[in-house]
Design a protein that fits this description.
There is one protein chain. With about 160 residues, the protein is mainly alpha-helical. The protein has 7 helices and no strands. The longest helix is centred in the middle third of the chain and has 29 residues. The protein starts with 8 loop residues before the first helix and ends in a 7-residue tail after the last helix.
Length: about 160
């Protein structure tokens, strides 16, 4: 609902933009990551995060080389450096530490529904920080996601 901006016709009319497709791919990748966490080698969490980030950096290296070769380069101003520091500390390190701990505590099946909070927080941050206008589809998406998380994360009683 949030990604499609409340327009289910966007699926058939191919009005989904490239960023939406990239986001859907990221969600699927993160779902796979979550499902495979129970099979990871027993190692310190920071070692696992370092390895994962290193692999991600290697995968992004060809794209970075291409970008630099076309003349695009980041400008290192206060905003860029501050954003980089935020991403390294919060979005990369702490978020993965907390999510991995959550998976260890409740298992991947019960942790997986929380992945769907990403578009909720992403769109809420766009509204708060980027001035995006809140729309009815935001509210509908938030309600659907939160209801799904609550329903899916409840312990099922009465089952053996």
């Amino acid at each position: 609902t949030i990604i499609l901006r409340g327009d289910l016709g966007a699926l058939v009319s191919n009005r989904v933009n490239r960023g939406d497709v990239m986001f859907a791919g990221a969600v699927m990748s993160f779902g796979l990551y979550s499902a495979l966490m129970s099979r990871r080698p027993k190692t310190h969490q920071l070692s696992l995060i370092s390895f994962t980030i290193g692999c991600g950096a290697l995968l992004l290296l060809p794209f970075s080389i291409w970008e630099f070769s076309t003349g695009l380069s980041p400008k290192f101003d206060v905003l860029t450096v501050g954003t980089l520091i935020y991403v390294v500390i919060f979005a990369s390190t702490l978020a993965y530490l907390f999510f991995n701990r959550g998976i260890a505590l409740i298992g991947p099946n019960r942790a997986a529904p929380f992945l769907h909070l990403v578009p909720v927080f992403g769109s809420a941050m766009a509204i708060l920080l980027l001035g995006e206008q809140p729309r009815l589809f935001h509210l509908a998406g938030y309600v659907l996601v939160l209801a799904g998380v609550v329903i899916a994360s409840r312990r099922q009683s009465g089952k053996v």
